[in-house]
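I would like you to sit down with the record closing this message with an eye to the fold:
=====
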Amino acid sequence: MEFIGIDLAGSEKRNTGFCTLRNSNAITKILNTNEEIIEKVKESNAKIVAIDATIVLHFGRKNLEEKSNVHLREYDKQLLYMYIKLFQMSLEQMRM
């Protein structure tokens, strides 16, 4: 069976991580454009595609451009409480 995992960048200017998992073999690539990503997914035999992408802003934030003291979403806090490390969406490297 084949699976695909995508660590989606917020912009085509940044690298998107792409992994194809077949049996116990992982093949990784760096992709940039939406077209590259779609092409690789279509080329695969994967029945499951997992995408890691932030889809919501923190409560109290309107955008990431404006400076704010709000850096963590409620579930980010819960993950940190369980000692699970994460990248905050408001970090400069995580922005578009």
User: Anything to note?
Assistant: The first strand starts at residue 2 and ends at 7.
